[in-house]
Amino acid sequence: MLKDIDLSRKLAKPAYKASKEQLELRLTSLERRARELGIPVLIVFEGWNAAGKGTLINKLILPMDPRGFTVHAMREPTEEEQLRPFLWRYWTRLPPRGRLAIFDRSWYRRVLDDRIEGRADRLAVEQAFDDIASFERLLATDGTLILKFFLHISKNEQAQRFEELRDNPATAWRVTDRDLAQHERYETTVQAVDQMLARSDADFAPWVVVEAHDTRFAAIKILTTVSNALARHIAAKEQQAERDRLELPVTPLPGNITTSMLDKVDLSLTLDRDTYHKRLNAAQRRIHELHHEIYTRRIPVVLVYEGWDAAGKGGNIRRLTQSLDPRGYEVIPIAAPNDLEKAHHYLWRFWTSFPKAGHIAIFDRSWYGRVMVERIEGFCSQAEWRRAYREINEMERNLGNFGTVLLKFWIHIDQATQLQRFEDRQANPHKAWKITDEDWRNRDKWDDYRVAVDELLLRTSTPQAPWHVIESNCKLHARVKAIETVVAAIERRLEIQGL
User: Whole-structure pTM over 0.90, yes or no?
Assistant: First the structure.
């Protein structure tokens, strides 16, 4: 692909100046309109070292309102970032709706630098391509405009630019040994870039190769591409808003799952107190030991607790964490999203909370709210919750690719048990705060939630991220089963790693 690019293309100064003035005025107007419509914009700059990324990014942002964009210069990951999935540091830098983020180097480092320099083997590169495709698709589907530029120069041009930089004492520092090594591997890198462009070019996240020998030509091509893409995206957004205004709201349809995992659950399972204390104490001792093992081996653990109101999630979590080192875990309670969280993709707030390698994150409620409460209460569209199953599975696969132990618990009780616990809470002055009007409203929608739960269990239980239904009519049984399940999963992971 790159060998067919005509790098001799140039633009005379008068033509450049005239085009630049018009494009800058247009871009300024489009940026304001995108902000008004709440459109997030991602612009990626990749390319050869010394191809002019800094100069061309500056020419792009010069006419823009500096309050509306952020430029992220993505260098080598820090020690903290290396302890997270490779996409984590990009998720945490995503722009809220109405803002623009420009990435000087991006998530494509994984399939270029890491691959060429031997930091990622073939399996890791294949997984990275899959993770990147999922990442860009879910952002685009959520309304993000994504543009990706690759700045292309020849090997001879790169050598000349390196020489000019090194001849100037003020800029010599910019040419590193790594830059020179890339130059020596130019032909090998071309092959990797060609594969990257072919495998990750999509209509929702297209690549644009920019002929970067002539800075004026490159600048006009970038300004034109961004302006045209913004104009198309804005027009589509306005048309969709008009359709939404004219159409009546659609009542979310139930899922089409007719099989139920919950029908097979034996809620009569119980434990006597003596057996409970013996097994709980043994499991807590073991999880205490394993906590040190996973820290040493840098294994991240993510635990998800979902379930009916009053099912006992809090009691389960307390027994699990009772013997853990508080410096190595975090319990993350999930409530309704705040304004900042609403301004991002719904998965953003969970990505920002994922643990670094060797630590445990425990989610009390989770991203599954998308296909339960948001689905039932109409807080998202039918199209949004239906595609969420795929998005969630892909996110969890991403965590699995990083080596995360991911367990998901559905804490299950029947309606009679829930009613009894609600009434007991109301009668107890020390527990009355736990019962709210919302709990009673949710109880009235039990059947609707049951349909949603059946569907999410079947659509999102995968080998890397299985669901475990915990029978919780007996809280003692539920607490022991949950913690023993965590112990068994971590032990399996350690065994796989040869411990």
Answer: yes
